[in-house]
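S2.1 Query sequence (Translation machinery-associated protein 16)
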Amino acid sequence: MAKTLEKTRKQIAKKRNGAIEAMHQNSRDSKRLHKAQIRDDRLEKLASNRKKRDRPLIGRVAFFQEFARQHENQALDLEAIQLKINEFVHQYDEEYAEVRSTRRQGRPASTREDLLKMKVEALEKEYRDGFFLPDLTSEKNVQLLDRWDREWSYLPNLAWVKISATGNIKPAKFPPSE
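Output structure tokens follow.
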């Protein structure tokens, strides 16, 4: 990951002939080390936030990759894709119904129930407006999707589309803008 601290420590040790422990608290070198440590922590935090934000999209692509593999990596028709999108959109319905039924009457919704409800509503809204996924109607793109190994850097190589509930297909760019 971030290596600023290691590089700074090495430079200071080289300058001081290996005696890095014998520094004054407010010396320039100790301030450099502190600054490098803060930068590494910040970069690490940003990277973890980015991975957390990208995780749902990677899960979505994996879901449709598995679907394409079940159909021998052949181009699919719009009806089959829409059925699979509908399955993806409603994947949380059973869990939401279970959490909702276990709640006693008159009690406020649990945090888990609220999160599931928000997920379901967001997916339904996205499907109405245009569901973002790799283009499964193109044979070439399905072959590229089959080679995907869950790396974010490979995803821009795929062709992307937005498919609405009415059946409209519009080309889209990766990453999705929201």
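Strands lie at 131-134, 160-163, 169-172. Helices lie at 4-15, 28-70, 78-89, 93-102, 111-129, 139-147.
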